[in-house]
Amino acid sequence: MDIRTRTVLLACALLVGAGLLSGCANLSAVRSYADETKKLSEAFDPMLAASTSSCVDKFIRKKLITARNFDALAAEEDATALCGTMADDNKIIADLNALLEQYADTLAALANEKLPAYKEELDGLKVSLGKVKLPGSQESLINTDKLAAISSLADLLSHVATQQRQKSAISDLLEHEEAITAITGALKDYSTLNYRAWLHDEKRELRVLRAALAEAGKKEPLAANYLKTLLLSAERKIDGQEKSVDAFVKAVDELWKTHAELRLRLHSLNDKELLAQLENFATEVVKLRRQVQAAF
To answer: Model-level pTM?
Structure first.
């Protein structure tokens, strides 16, 4: 028997002996959940980048069509300054999404009998998250209770990585369901309440600009027609991005169901209902990734 085989068998024995798992073959369910969760996290990143671009593009387009003396460089600088608050919020939400990815990576490492790694830059995330507000208000996107749950999970992830608590780590991580719901719920809210709202604003602006071009087209029909084509292309792009938000919401809903099933059936990971739910989750993540690829 080679060293790797003995190591795997020892890891299995420890997990089974701790009463966590009924057999090492069952770890495929944990790996599947971790893999799909990471894919969901990766699919969220383009929305953050696109939200800032959406704000900048909207400002520049308006200047391009309505300003008498259009200065592209000045317009871009003004737009970047105007959208600065959004960019700052996006950096914080990106860190929150990175915590979700860290969670998925840690689960996957444990399921593969590897020592997980922890990203120290995630320390202090709790303070930053409190700064992100709901659009049009001073109310925090994430309330105090949810922040506490997220902070507790971040602490656990750092301990798992440094103390090698693999024996009970999978169970401990799954028990932090409240934190995972808080994290993904915040990402879901940010995509629907913030990002989708920006997309709606951009669409409304496009309609206004199209009306302005109708008048300008009488004097410069060629230029006006070209700009109308650009506006149409922008509107279709926004339609695709809105569909990405819808797909993300559905995938998060399936993540919640899957996490609950996995935590409940940790001692019977070959359960048919659990495996069916894992398949549902994977299906929605595939749809999400395809939509994001098409839209961005």
So the answer is: 0.81
